[in-house]
Amino acid sequence: APELGSLYLAQANDTGTDSTVKKLQGTITLYVTEENVDVEADIAAIEDVLNQYALALNTGDLELWLSLNTDDIVKMPPNAPASFGKEQLRANMEPAFDNFTFEMAIYPEETQVDGDLGYSWCTYTVSMTPKAGGETIISEPDGKALGIYKRQPDGSWKLSHDCYNSNVPPPTVE
């Protein structure tokens, strides 16, 4: 069996009926390049999606918020079923946008890119207050999230998978 890292060359003899294999000695360096790859710009673009995500919630802009997600988004909230696709996500979130104001801050901890996929894990705080008035009914003082992003044909990035939950234990029932 060939050794890992060795290159073998098969040669056919003049009759084409017999072949020999010769081991090539030396080093071969391969350079793989991809045009217009700027990892730092891609990371900044993904982190901008996070900023736009918070802005959309804070301004109550459901359309902007949805536009940051792929059509086949998988959203995995804590203590609830996952949402599959942008239309199901709209159906699940439209009542929240209609009835609550949000205050959200997102703090990226690590963002990486590999080709047309990227991920970011972040911490966040969020609160929801009824638009009709009243106390904040949902507050997340210490949350964490992991998102997977896909580069779109136009070069932009969108969230394709999102999982988030709290670092604060749920209240106990006595």
TrEMBL record:
SUPFAM superfamilies: NTF2-like. InterPro entries: DUF4440, NTF2-like_dom_sf. Residues 46-159 form the DUF4440 domain. Gene3D superfamilies: 3.10.450.50. This is DUF4440 domain-containing protein.
